[in-house]
Amino acid sequence: DIVMTQSPDSLAVSLGERATINCKSSQSVLDSSKRESYLTWYQQKPGQPPKVLIYWASIRESGVPDRFSGSGSGTDFTLTISSLQAEDVAVYYCQQYYDTPFTFGPGTKVNIK
Amino acid sequence: EVQLVQSGAEMKKPGESLKISCQVSGDTFTKYWIGWVRQMPGKGLEWMGIIYPGDSDTRYNPSFQGRVTLSVDKSSKTAYLQWNSLRASDTALYYCARHRGSGVQWDFGFWGQGTLVTVSS
Question: In whole angstroms, what is the distance from residue B117 CA to residue B10 CA?
């Protein structure tokens, strides 16, 4: 199985400041022929199902604010919230969909400082 | 608009069987893989497996294989997650979710509201 790790486990950021979450896969999730990494970022707020923010590592889902961005390729990925808003308090998960089982990272909890 | 509506919360005893459902509307049911995700209380997301409604091809997470069964009913556009003998450790919120695109290698673009399963004697 591909093991996904995330860092940090949690972070507290002031409103308007940048939040950065890292995700690492135990093996590459890059499809060299398509030049795409099979990596998605989800946001889960309390009492709600997860919601896709970013897929193919860097493509923002329709309707997602542009303060969310994804980067990285291969085994190392980053989700950045450029200016944290109150409504961004949530747990963020990465998931690889390169090889089954399509494993999730353990999650990063984001709070307001 | 794609919608996934899951069956209601369940309370069961250890050793009992259970089948929960996920009805899909708004798109061609047989074209997209549907999966199940477990979230134990206060914990993260675990990918359990996926099923292709077109031919019932199934991919299980080895951690769950043999413990659960995925199935579909094409006539009612419903996916199912089934246990033959529940354990207390199966207590969790279970989400069904549909792939974004019509292939195996896709993420879950659409989610149900979750079904809470509680197993206690």
Answer: 5
Q: Which pLDDT score is estimated for B77?
A: 97
Cβ atoms B119, B12 nearer than 8 A: yes
DSSP structural state of residue A104: B
- Using CA atoms of A96, A101, A104, A106 in order, give the dihedral in degrees to the nearest 10: -140
A→B contacts (Cβ < 8 Å), by residue, are 1, 38, 40, 42, 44, 49-52, 55, 61, 91, 93, 95, 97-98, 100-107
Task: Give residue B28's pLDDT.
Answer: 87
Rg (CA), chain B: 14
Instruction: Decide if B110 contacts B101 (C-beta within 8 A).
Output: no
How far A35 CA sits from the closest chain B CA (Å)? 14
